[in-house]
């Protein structure tokens, strides 16, 4: 049953994710592509939407992915979203309740401190791999059959560099919401007026 499957998949993703929502993107990508639920470009779009909407990223992405598996029926979409969301938050809820009950006992334990210390580089690696994945799925179009990158989206590079530079040069930093709105507006204007460069 799709509801139970969604819960289990996101429970597994939630229990093996350390370092926040972005660290779970590689796990989500692997699960979604393996099941054939979402193509990489679709997942990339859902990630962008999850980043742009209010609330924790992990909950947003689970909710959006759940809704994509609910078909055309709103009730089914709602139930699928709910199951995916419950799946991703349940491990954190269980773990935080356990930690809260034993924190004072283990907070100064040298072995616990070492575990936390050595988990950090893994988190950095996961987030870095997410950044690289974003770069190649958004800037390039990859053709698995020919094992090469087919197109190069130079407009996205210019947009990124331009907005980043403007944000750094202005004395008062632009609020992320304004950056998202500017990028979205430029995307609407540019979308129909160019083709990615074939390489």
Account of the 3D structure:
By secondary structure, the protein is mostly helical. The chain has 2 domains: 2-140, no CATH class; 153-199, no CATH class. The chain has helices at 2-15, 25-35, 40-52, 57-68, 74-106, 110-139, 154-169, 176-191, and strands spanning 140-143, 148-152, 197-198. The chain is globular, with a radius of gyration of 20 Å. It starts with a helix and ends with a strand.
In terms of topology, how is this protein built?
Layout: H1 2-15, H2 25-35, H3 40-52, H4 57-68, H5 74-106, H6 110-139, E1 140-143, E2 148-152, H7 154-169, H8 176-191, E3 197-198
Antiparallel strand pairs: 1-2, 2-3
Helix pairs in contact: 1-5, 3-4, 4-5, 7-8
Q: Gist?
A:
Helix content is 73%, strand content 6%. The protein has 199 residues and is mainly alpha-helical.
Q: Which residue ranges are poorly predicted, with pLDDT under 50 across at least 5 consecutive positions?
A: none
How far is the N terminus from the C terminus? 44 Å
Topology order in helix (H) and strand (E) letters? HHHHHHEEHHE
Oligomer category: single chain
The domain tally reads 2
Give the neighbour order of strands across the main sheet. Answer: 1-2-3
Main sheet attributes: strand count, strand direction, barrel closure: 3 strands, antiparallel
Structural class: mainly alpha
The geometry reads as globular
Number of strands: 3
Strand percent estimate: 5-15%
Q: Would you tell me the overall average pLDDT?
A: 77
Helix fraction bin = over 70%
